[in-house]
Amino acid sequence: MLPLCAIDIMTIPRKGSRPIEVDGVKYRWRIRQRPTYMQGVLDHPLNLAVEIDDDPKSSLIVELAQSHPCNWLGDPAVPVTPSQVAGHIRQALDAGWQPQSQGSAFRLRIDSGS
User: Fold this and answer.
1) Is the Cβ–Cβ distance between 28 and 89 less than 8 Å?
2) pTM, two decimal places
3) Residues 12, 28 contacting (CB under 8 angstroms)
4) E strand segments, the chain
5) Cα–Cα distance between 105 and 70 in angstroms, integer?
6) Which one-letter DSSP state was computed for residue 61?
7) Distance CA 44, CA 67 (A)
8) Residue 53 pLDDT more than 60?
């Protein structure tokens, strides 16, 4: 079971989030600016949160197999690109994420650089 983080409990703040359109639907995505303690010491992967833009009901949490860019141990940061985010959104939709239906966060684990 993955640990809960504050981003699971509330909607994504508009400040600091980035808009993205995938297949005609507008979403917002965000990576936490500062790492959690576990991300800072490289003991927990980077999480990316996504919600539908107009009326968020269910969040998508993508667990990426990479370090947080601001980790404390100097592990090289790999940027997350909008095209990767769009691919993760499509993958989550194919796996059953329903962003317009009320529900808990949908988790998607990405094990490699996909």
Assistant:
1) no
2) 0.79
3) yes
4) 18-22, 25-31, 46-52, 60-64, 106-110
5) 24
6) E
7) 8
8) yes
